[in-house]
Amino acid sequence: MRFPIDARLNDGALVQLILAGSQEVEPLRRLYGIIVEEGTSYPHDCFPDDDTFMEYWFHGKSTVAAYLGDTPGRTKEMIGAFYLKPNWPGRARQVANAGFIVAPEWRNRGLGWLLGATMLQYAKELGYRSVIFNLVFSENEAARYLWRKLGFGELGIIPGAVRKKDGSYQDAIIMFKSLI
């Protein structure tokens, strides 16, 4: 897969996907802060420190960032991103894991689908044989719908795995897709 990738969303907006480098750290940190504060899709209950953030999004991962328009840069706003990594080491490293974020104002416009479809193709090209999501929040219906649309199945439920902002708990879903 050759980056950058130019694509159009459902509304015709031009988006460019790039392999993230050092200039994407701060825009991704800002966007991830919004996602963590929402509390509806990621396990962090507060924004992680710098080392934890870098480990979570960059170290040992391929990270792809989405920008509006055709020229990424520090002045442009990042509207989404994903990371791709082995879910386990060694003999099981052919099973990928990925994480996705989409800016709230860019949801329901096709960006999640574009990021997901790109990740699946990229994972296959990198030699992964499957992709697993370990922790899809059960109440995140939009994500579950998207992953089913992209061919993922639900393998199991982890009851009460996620503590919500109000102190109650929701289940987590394990989702899987073969790439062979």
Describe it for me?
- The chain is an alpha+beta fold and 180 residues long.
- It has 4 helices and 8 strands.
- It has one domain (5-132): 3-Layer(aba) Sandwich (Aminopeptidase).
- Strands 1-2-3-4-5-6-8-7 form an 8-stranded mixed sheet, sandwiched between helices.
- The chain starts with a strand and ends with a strand.
Descriptive labels:
alpha+beta, 180 residues, Aminopeptidase, 26% helix
Write a short abstract of this structure.
This protein is α+β, with helices and mostly antiparallel strands and 180 residues long. The chain is 26% helix and 35% strand.
- Which CATH C-level class is it? Alpha Beta
Question: Quick one: how many beta strands?
Answer: 8
- Count of individual helical segments: 4
Assembly type: single chain
What summary fits the major beta sheet? 8 strands, mixed
Secondary structure category: alpha+beta
- Largest sheet, spatial ordering of strands: 1-2-3-4-5-6-8-7
User: Which runs of at least 5 residues are low in confidence (pLDDT < 50)?
Assistant: none
CATH architecture field = 3-Layer(aba) Sandwich
Determine the mean pLDDT: 94
Summarize the SSE layout with pairings.
Layout: E1 5-8, E2 14-19, H1 25-38, H2 50-57, E3 62-68, E4 78-86, E5 95-102, H3 111-125, E6 130-137, H4 141-149, E7 153-163, E8 169-178
Parallel strand pairs: 5-6
Antiparallel strand pairs: 1-2, 2-3, 3-4, 4-5, 6-8, 7-8
